[in-house]
Amino acid sequence: MNHETSLVRRYGADALIVIAAIGGAIEVALRHDSLRGPHTTVWFVSPAIALVVLPLLLRRRFPFGAPASLWLIAAALSFIDGRLVVFTYAAYLAGMGAAFLLGNLPEAVQARIGLAVVVAGIMILVYNDANHSPGEFIFIPFLFSIAWLAGFALRQRAAQAEAAEERADHAEREREAAARVAVAEERARIARELHDVVAHAVSVMVLQVGAVRHRLPQTLQEDREALQGVEQAGRTALTEMRRLLGAMRSDGDGADLAPQPGLDSLDMLLEDVRRAGLPVRLHVEGEPLPLPRAIDLSAYRIVQEGLTNALKHARASQAAVTIHYGPAELRIEVRDNGVGASTSGGVGHGLLGVRERVKIYGGDMSAGTTPVGGFVLSTSLPVSEDVR
Q: Largest CB tally within 10 Å, which of 15, 190, 252, 383?
């Protein structure tokens, strides 16, 4: 069925053009003896009418030349027989179609030239018709100009639709590019934070190994040398990590000397949000337990991003943060009564960063509006017992 529909759309108009050409030839042959009919022989008028209509078959290859040639051929034939073209309905309908096609041309200059061809052709046809009346010099050009205007208006609308679609595609590409940039920046930020966390842990291990090595007696020389090797490897790793961390920092992004925040810093964060004008409540469920440093930092960033969205983008008047300590996971929920996080103009890409953080640790994230209004950001971060 779809194949048949495609064939009709592609060749249906061509079939109608051929039918019009054949019908016009038959019509002029059967009515040739009419008082108002053509005065030339039937062997001339029948193929001549077909010659007027058939150029429209080339409209796809020659969008301007095909319909324009119809009018040029019709005008030329009118000098041979003034009643030939105006006598048949087929030529009339073909002329309407040609005027529409000329108005529908994508280039405005060609469309206006086509209008001039239509009007000039009509004036010649009317003038060469011995039975014309003075009013036909106005009425008939006006009638075909309406067909041209319909094609021109349809093309303008199609051009506007194409421009709107192109703008939408461009905006979509910009949003996708902005999202990719936001994800890349967040990944770099997470990597820097993890480097800080790992560097701190390695520093502690190096210091502890050094302390143990100095306390060992001289009789355990092999053990002291082994610990010295471990200490030296740790210091080398720290040096390389600092070099890598320096390369990852952008220009002007100096090292942060302050300790990385965690959930124990939530009180200060909530106080800052309250001072900014958003009342926020904190609910802690379960027994707070020590968390891996990276999980603790990511949990803080998730709460920070959720409250930032509520404060800046959601136009909320209140918010609530829930921290649930489970046996194998840490669940975080940030809820507000606003309109949700904006995703236009590059705003709201922080949620992409939250998704990246959650994905790193194999957690789950959901974000969206609720049936009763407001916006909820919910995440779950797995926490294994052996890393606490």
A: 383
Residue 209: both structure tokens together? 């190994």
**For helices 221-248 and 136-215, what crossing angle results, to 10°?**
160
CA pair distance 271, 284, nearest whole angstrom:
16
280-285 and 319-325 beta bridge pairing: parallel
Reading the block at residue 344, the tokens are: 């236009």
pTM given for the model: 0.49
Of residues 34 and 138, more confidence is placed in 138
CA distance 356 to 185: 11
Give residue 246's pLDDT band: very low, low, confident or very high (50, 70, 90). low
142, 107 Cβ separation under 8 angstroms: no
What DSSP letter does each residue of 12-55 carry, written as one string? HHHHHHHHHHHHHHHHHHHTTTSTTS-SS-HHHHHHHHHHHHGG
What distance in Å separates the CA atoms of residue 191 and residue 185, rounded to the nearest whole number? 10
Q: What residue type is 370 in one-letter code?
A: T
